[in-house]
């Protein structure tokens, strides 16, 4: 069983308006589609985790999004929030879902809608169906195949919910010896590598660590002792 990690780019005229909102507003890095009911349904029910703040501009945009029928927001203590939403998918969303599901592939959560305009997702299924799916994506969507290999959820899940900057912060921390014993690098070193303020670097690193630690706890079986 194979997996393929894709990076998609949708033309602005077919991009979902809430993805466009993340692109157009500072403070929002990505929104992650975590759970859904039936991706092929005329009205979908979806659960997102939005890595961004503040909530109110996002809420105001939701009120005016033409395909959103109902929503609820639950703020988190780390300047992010969960979003429950019911609404009608765009025609491009429906065509894209059909391209993947009709080819016999399974979409693995999370699906990341990033501030740079890309949509990143992982598909799992027989190797021969991957090319079929890529060839049938709708017009206005370009596809970049990032990685293909044997599926192993432990390998994919831990880093999937990290934004690009969070991943860069972790990579810089490892490179400078921040996680060494004894510790050699500092947050200032990470900030220099990222080209940002130390407080910003520390925030990226803290969010990345929180995601990874939560994933480790979820993947470990509960003790029966």
From TrEMBL:
Keywords: Transcription, Transcription regulation. Residues 162-213 form the HTH bat-type domain. The keyword Transcription applies. Residues 16-151 form the HVO-0513-like N-terminal domain. The keyword Transcription applies. This is HTH DNA binding domain-containing protein.
């Amino acid at each position: 069983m194979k997996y393929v990690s894709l990076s998609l780019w949708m033309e602005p005229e077919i991009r979902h308006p809430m993805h466009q909102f993340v692109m157009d507003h500072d403070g929002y890095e990505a929104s992650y589609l975590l759970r859904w009911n039936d991706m092929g349904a005329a009205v979908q029910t979806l659960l997102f985790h939005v890595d961004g703040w503040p909530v109110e501009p996002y809420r105001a945009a939701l009120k005016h999004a033409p395909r959103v029928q109902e929503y609820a927001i639950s703020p988190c203590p780390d300047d992010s929030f969960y979003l429950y939403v019911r609404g009608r998918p765009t025609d491009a969303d429906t065509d894209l879902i059909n391209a993947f599901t009709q080819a016999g592939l399974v979409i693995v959560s999370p699906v990341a809608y990033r501030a740079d305009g890309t949509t990143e997702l992982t598909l799992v299924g027989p190797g021969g169906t991957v090319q079929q799916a890529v060839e049938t994506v709708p017009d206005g969507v370009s596809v970049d195949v990032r990685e293909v290999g044997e599926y192993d959820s432990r390998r994919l899940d831990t880093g999937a919910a990290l934004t690009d900057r969070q991943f860069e912060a972790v990579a810089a921390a490892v490179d400078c010896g921040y996680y060494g014993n004894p510790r050699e690098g500092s947050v200032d070193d990470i900030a220099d590598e990222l080209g940002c303020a130390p407080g910003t670097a520390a925030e990226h690193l803290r969010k990345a660590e929180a995601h990874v630690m939560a994933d480790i706890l979820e993947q470990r079986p509960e003790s029966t002792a």
